[in-house]
Amino acid sequence: MTYFVLFLGVCLVLGALAVASNPSPYYGVLGLVVGSVVGCGWLVSLGASFIALVLFLVYLGGMLVVFVYSVSLAADPY
């Protein structure tokens, strides 16, 4: 179980680096989804399943709206 939590922690850091280091919003969204799922999995493994569900719904839903808006602005030629 300790190795699994350590693996989730490493994946969470890699997901955060993927969000921060990609100039393209498409890959940033992918890193955000990976980081959010791994972070929620980490919280579930620690026994906080309700907090993980709330984090997944609120954080991921709100941030995906911002990313969709920025992608639509970047794709607009005018």
UniProtKB/TrEMBL annotation:
| A Pfam family reported for this protein in Swiss-Prot or TrEMBL | Oxidored_q3
Q: Which family is annotated?
A: Belongs to the complex I subunit 6 family.
Whether Transport counts among this entry's keywords is yes
- Its EC top class is translocase
Return the protein name.
NADH-ubiquinone oxidoreductase chain 6
What this protein catalyses is: a ubiquinone + NADH + 5 H(+)(in) = a ubiquinol + NAD(+) + 4 H(+)(out)
Could you say which residues form the signal peptide? 1-18
Topology in the membrane?
Answer: Multi-pass membrane protein
EC nos: 7.1.1.2
* Cellular component GO terms, alphabetical: mitochondrial membrane
The organism is: Nothoprocta pentlandii
- What is the annotated localization of this protein? Mitochondrion membrane
Recite the UniProt keywords alphabetically: Electron transport, Membrane, Mitochondrion, NAD, Respiratory chain, Signal, Translocase, Transmembrane, Transmembrane helix, Transport, Ubiquinone
